Prior knowledge:
Two copies of one chain form a homodimer. With 273 residues, chain A is an alpha+beta fold.
Amino acid sequence: MSLASEQSSVPMDDRGLAYGDGLFETVLVRDGTPLLWDEHMARLARGCQVLGIPLPARDALDCLPERAGPGLRVLKLILTRGSGGRGYLPPASSSPRLRWQAMAFSPQPSRWRDGVRVRHCRLRLGIQPLLAGLKHLNRLENVLARNEWSAPDLAEGLLCNSDGWLVEATCMNLFWLREGQLETPRLDDSGVAGTLRAALLERLPVSEVMATPDVLAGAEAVWLANSIQGVWPVAQLDDAGGTRLANWTIGRAHRHLQAAAHDLLDYPVDFPE
Amino acid sequence: MSLASEQSSVPMDDRGLAYGDGLFETVLVRDGTPLLWDEHMARLARGCQVLGIPLPARDALDCLPERAGPGLRVLKLILTRGSGGRGYLPPASSSPRLRWQAMAFSPQPSRWRDGVRVRHCRLRLGIQPLLAGLKHLNRLENVLARNEWSAPDLAEGLLCNSDGWLVEATCMNLFWLREGQLETPRLDDSGVAGTLRAALLERLPVSEVMATPDVLAGAEAVWLANSIQGVWPVAQLDDAGGTRLANWTIGRAHRHLQAAAHDLLDYPVDFPE
């Protein structure tokens, strides 16, 4: 295992670069203390197991958040399978590379309070049960989907997979309230299983469901969430052409899930109506 | 555009590493002369157009094969979108990174002559029309598929997509002869459009078809091909569990396509029965 070092590079023959053969995590860190660290480490471990990459010693990971610097930071870890192998065939014995960097981060309180406008993306995610849920380095679909719009007032884009099922947003997970029931898409075939999503599923009665996009128009509330940004209520949903499909008044119905999430991230939970 | 340099590295924030946001080419070079160079440059250009990555000046690419060294070499180019952007969103103006390295290469004449044993893979490729055909850096599916077997006498694994259509092998394209007609899978939804495949489609009457795996058992001949290895006739096809599904006697029916391909690569064309 190569030693982790900030701002480090990888050689051209690293399989993370060559094939996206690796994993990453982006962790919110407040004054050296990571949020949802156990969930991040659990997802990294699961990814290593699926890809057959040796998991770094926990000590080598646990020491990183306190090195991220003071204030609110995002710690990004990249773990690749390292170099070697014959073409796509991984080497019999891998020497993974761990790299990290930390950046200052400022959340967007107005999005917590007032909600966001989102749209459907045209791109449909491929179906790949072997990789679904993992935060691996093959993210071209997310890049292309995010590149579908540039308007700064459009906060996110929603993604279905090639079978037409709702999956997620480009970098956030999706939740909604329907007939009093919290729901989120199943991620068996596509998408990234967010760490905040995992923590919420542990703490709230959220059902993982197969749903098509029309479920959202009938929802009492819709949210986007991840472990960096917290929870954004959705105030307006547009189709891929920019036509409004639905809108919601952000109010009491939105605050319960948000408060549960923000409690986990030490973000504000009070937003007076 | 960063200058290309052999054995160079990329920084941790390079989008090629972070997201697989880039393209690659592996080019056969004989004593400084590249084979199928125009096809490689055409595929790279198409990839740049689809991903919105500025194509390097042709001069910066054309000078590389002669720097690959004497004898038979494989020149690998990696072109990434470079650093920058906000998360998945690409920067408004990219500064791509071009990296290259060259390695000695020895083909396997016994595979040209006697053919190879191949198997079906369990993994099914995701469907992504926006990326199909490109040699992009998101290759985890290929890595996982190639990792399904380790027996050295199994030369390749065949892949279908999630709709069940035949696509390719893990690093080669697939061809077969059926009722006197040369056929190869369409690559509109999945797979990599090989440069040797492109050159053969220009020169021979090959039909691009949608076909399920059962088409192979009834084929008069089956081949795998790429621009590095040339053309391997398929002598035996196994299912994913190792049970033989079909076998072929390698003979005259196999040599026509092979000769056309090997003529393009300056590989041998005569294999006495």
